[in-house]
## 1
Amino acid sequence: MSVVVGYLAGRVGPSALQLAVRVARTLNTSLTVATIVQKPWLPGSLTQPGYEQWADELAADSATEAQRYLRTVADGVEVSYRYHEHRSVSGGLIEVVEEVHAEMLVLGSFPNGRRARVLIGSTADWLLHSSPVPVAISPRQYDSHSARLTRLTCGYSAAPDSAGVVRRCSALARRYGLPFRVITFAVRGRTMYPPEVGLHAESSVLEAWAAQAQEMLEKLKTDGVVGKDVVLQVITGNGWQHALERTDWQDGELLALGTSPRGDIARVFLGSRSGKIIRHSPVPVLVLPG
C-alpha cells in the first residue's frame, strides 16, 4: 500500500506534497511521487530529436524539486519517485495507483484560482470521475502545522439515500484513527425569492430547513449509522463560501464528500453542491469513488 501524489515541476507548487506527507504518515504507509510525461499521439514523433531528452529532464527536474520540498517535512515517511509515460496525465496516474496498490491519490490545486481556494484542471476533473481510489485535493497554499491528519469531517446532504456515504466516511475515520464529524450545509441561494418578498421570508425558510437537517443528522445516531460520540452540525451561510468560512475547522482536518455511481460511464458523479464545496473549501477535500 502507498499514497500516490501527482507532481510536475513548476505546475502546482508544494501544497499537494504537504498534504500527501500528512496522509501517508497518518496511514502509516509510504509515499510515491509520480511524474507523468505525456507521450505524443503520433507514434513517429517519439523518435523526433529532443523528445527523450526533454522527457528525462522534466522527470529529473520534478524529482529534484519534490525532494527539495519534502526534505524538511517528510521525516519518518518512506518516499519513492516514479517517472511514467502515458498519452494522458490522468491515465498515467491511474496506472501508477494500480501498480503500487495505492490507497489514495493526492492532487494539488492550480495556484491561480482567484477567489476559489481550489481550482481543478481537466486532469483532476477527469480523475474525480474515474479514479478507483479516493482522491484528495489540497487547497491553494495549503500548509498545516500538524504532522498528521487530525479529524475527518463528512459532508452530508441530509437526503435519505446519503446514509451510505456517512457509513463509508465513518469506516475511513476508524481506518485512519481519526475523530469523526458529520456536517450539513444550509445555504441561502442568490435567488431564493423575488426582492419584494423580503429577506425575512428567506431567513425563515433557511431556519426551517436547518432544523429539519438537524433532525436528519440526529437520526444517523438513532439508526446506528454513527456512534453516540460523533459530532453532528448544521452550518448555515449566505452562499457556499460564507458557509464554509463559518465552519469550525481544525488544523490538519480533511473534508470527505460522497459521490453517486453512474454505471460504466464514470465511477463518480459530482453534483453542483459538491463542486461548490470543493471550490471554496479551506481544508483539503477527499472525494470518494461511487
Note: The chain is about 35% helix and 20% strand.
## 2
Amino acid sequence: MHKYYQPPEKDLWKGREDGERFHQVIQCLDLSKEKLEFQDKPCYGFLGFVSDEGVRRNEGRMGASEGPFAIRKSLANLALHQLVEAKFFDVGNIVCEDQNLEEAQKQLGEAVASLLNQNVFPIVLGGGHESAWGIHQGVMELHSECAVVNFDAHLDLRPLLEDQWGTSGTSFSQIAEGYKNRGKSFHYTCLGVQKAGNTSQLFETAEKHQVKIVYAENFCLGALGRIQEVISYHKPIHLTICLDVFAAAFAPGVSAPQAFGILPKDILTSLSLLAHSKKVVVLDIAELSPQHDRDGITAKLASNLIAHFLYEHIHIVK
C-alpha cells in the first residue's frame, strides 16, 4: 500500500450486545501488512474512500469525506441473520490528500484489485462519486469489460476540466474513455435520472455512448426491465449507488439533495435481482455527507442498502 492508505479503526465498530451484529464479527485487516490466506467462507471487504476533492472540483456541497466513517458506525449495529456464514473485513481507507485526486483514484483501484485477487468482494464506502473511476481502474485489471449499473440522479458524464482533471461528475466519462483506449465497449445503465439535474449536453453524451437510462418518474416501471437486460447480456457488473438518487426526505445528507428522488423501498427488488445474478463483482455507495444529514438517516439508508444486498448475495456465493 502507498502513502494514501489508512489502516482500519476497530473503534468504529460498536453496538448492542444482544445478538449477532456486524460489529461482533468484523475483522480489521491492514492491507499494508497482511494478506488473506485461503478462506472457507465467502469474504467481504469494506474499503473507505475518504475524498471531498471531486465534489469540490464539481462545485458541490462538501462533506463526503466523512461518509465512510458514518456508514461503518451505522452498519456496525445492524443484525447479521444468515450473514454469520460469511467473513467480513474492514480493510481501511484510501485518503485523498493534497488535493491529488488522480493519485488517490489510482491507489483505490490498486486496493480494489488486491481484494479481488484475494477472492474478497469489495464494498467501497464513499466519499464523492469520483470513487467510481478509481474502483473501475481496479476492476479493469482483472476484467477486459465490465458493465456499470448506476443508481443516480445524475449521469456523471461531464467532460474533464480544462486542466484535464476529473471531478465527482466525470467518472463515467473517464470509464468510457478507458474502454475506448483499450478498444473495448462501454456498457452503462443509469437508473433514477433527474431530467432537471442533467443538461441537454449530458443527454447528448449519453446518447453517443448508448447509455441505457431510466428516469426517476419511471423508476418503478422501468428499472427491473433494464436490470434484467444487463444481467442477460453482461458479465461482470460494477454496481454503484449514489445516495442522491433518493428523495431528500430519505437522503438529506448528500451533496445534491433531490426533491423528486426515488423511494428507498423501490430499489430493493432491483438490488435483489443484481445480488442473485452472480455477476456483480464490486458494490460501492457514494456521496454520503454526514454534516448535512438529519438524525443520521442517510447513513442508516446507506448501511441498510448494503445489508439488504448482502442478505441476498450470501447464498449465491456459498
Note: The mean pLDDT is 95.
## 3
Amino acid sequence: MRDSRPLLLDTLFDDANLLRDLQQRAIALLKLNKAVKALLPKAMHEHCRVANYRHSVLVLEVSNASWLTRLRYEQPALLTALRHEILPSLASIDIKINPSLSTKIQHPAAPRSNLPENKPEPVRRLSEQSAEQIRELAARSKGKLKEKLERLAALAERGASTASRDEKP
C-alpha cells in the first residue's frame, strides 16, 4: 500500500529523487490532461480535467452533474481512443464532481467588474429620509440596539457634509 502520510518540506528537499518523481508525475498528468482535452468536444474543455491516473484507472473531474452526464456519453469513445493512442493499459475511467472547478471558470460574457481598475468604488450614502426612519426606530429601542441605530443614522449627516464638501469647486 502506498504511504500517503504528510511529509515535512525538509524531507522533500533532502531527498532529490522524491522531488524529481513528484515533478515527473505532475508533468505526466499535465500531458495526459492535454491529450484528454484534445479528444473531448471543445465545450467540455473548461469543465473537465484529469485528476489522477493510478492502477490503470483514469480519474477525471467535472464541474457539476450536468457535465458528468455529458462526459458519461463521451466515456466509451474516450476510453477507446485513449487505449489506442496513449494508455494501452487503461482499464476504466472514473468521473468525479469537483465543484471548485466551476468557481475557477471565468465566462467571457460576464465582466469581472463594471468599474475601471483605477477608479475606487462609489461611496454609499444614507438618505436623510432613511436616517429619519432609523432615528424613530432608535427612539423606540433600548440598549445596544438603540446605540447602533443612532450611529447608523449619524452616518447620513456625515455623508451629507462630506458630499457638500466634495461638490464645492
Note: The radius of gyration is 29 Å.
